[in-house]
Design a protein that fits this description.
Layout (H helix, E strand, L loop, with lengths): L1 H5 L7 E6 L4 E4 L2 E3 L6 H12 L3 E6 L11 E5 L3 H12 L4 E4 L6 E3 L18 E3 L3 H8 L4 E8 L3 H11 L4 E6 L11 E2 L1 E5 L4 E3 L3 E2 H17 L1
Parallel strand pairs: 1-4, 1-6, 4-5, 6-9, 9-10
Antiparallel strand pairs: 2-3, 7-8, 10-12, 11-14, 12-13
Helix pairs in contact: 2-6
This protein binds cytidine-5'-triphosphate (CTP) and calcium ion.
Cytidine-5'-triphosphate binds next to helix 4 and strand 9.
């Protein structure tokens, strides 16, 4: 049995993954969030663990269940908490895959009591959250860094821009143009773009298959 385990390609490697949405509090009972199910990130964690990796999965609020003993789930709520947990584990990681749908903005101030309804309109001032992926691109050393890009238009151009500005080794372009891809469904249509500008298009597949394709692409680039 030990011999078989030793043959796994990511045996002894540490993989850091983010998943799910983040919730940004407005008051004690309300938040701003998004529809990310976390499924893609949990499938990637499972695929990496099946290759022998020790996985840390930092996830926003989801209903996903982790079934793999090599995956350690670290639950967080806000973008700020996700940033802090990710930075605790990054230095010690070999591969980081950031698939979370992190809120880009959060309420500038959080009310300490429930906000009562008053006027006929209500506006909230928002401030930018920290870009977790970009912050890793700025400090990365040996780590292989993977990001996602969710786009509806000018897809390749925007994804290539993110690959470069965030200093990534690989970006997964998630097409929201096709139905059956993206939020809430169990399928995804992705294109991989590498730092050496290889573009690999995949047909519509289950998120579990996309996760395996992604791990294979990472192994390929690591061994090149
Ligand atoms: N990301 C992150 N922290 C943020 C925002 C995004 O780590 N505060 C990561 C996501 O997990 C994803 C990548 O950055 O891997 C791209 O996210 P995306 O929302 O597509 O791009 P943004 O850079 O936020 O730009 P925009 O939403 O304006 O397209
Ligand atoms: Ca964003």
């Amino acid at each position: 049995e030990k011999d078989i385990l030793n043959q796994l390609p990511l045996r002894g490697k540490k993989v850091l993954i983010t998943a799910g949405p983040t919730y940004e509090a407005l008051d004690p009972v309300r938040f701003i969030g998004n529809h990310s199910s976390g499924k893609m990130g949990f499938e990637i964690a499972n695929a990496a663990a099946n290759l022998g990796a020790e996985v840390i999965l930092v996830t926003g609020p989801t209903h996903q269940k982790n079934a793999h003993s090599l995956v350690k789930v670290v639950p967080v709520v806000s973008a700020e908490e996700m940033y802090n947990e990710v930075h605790k584990h990054f230095k010690n990681s070999d591969i980081a895959i950031l698939s979370a749908a992190v809120a880009d903005y959060r309420p500038k101030s959080v009310a300490d009591k429930k906000i009562k309804k008053k006027d006929s309109t209500f506006s909230v001032e928002l401030e930018k959250t920290k870009d977790i992926l970009k912050s890793l691109g700025e400090i990365k050393e040996h780590q292989f860094l993977v990001g996602f890009a969710l786009e509806t238009n000018n897809e390749l151009e925007y994804a290539k821009g993110k690959l470069k500005s965030k200093n990534l080794d690989l970006i997964v372009l998630n097409s929201l143009q096709d139905k059956g891809a993206g939020f809430g469904v169990s399928t995804n249509k992705v294109t991989f773009i590498t730092s050496s500008n290889d573009i690999i298009e995949h047909p519509l597949k289950s998120k579990a298959e996309v996760a395996n394709d992604l791990m294979n692409q990472i192994l390929k680039q690591l061994h090149a």
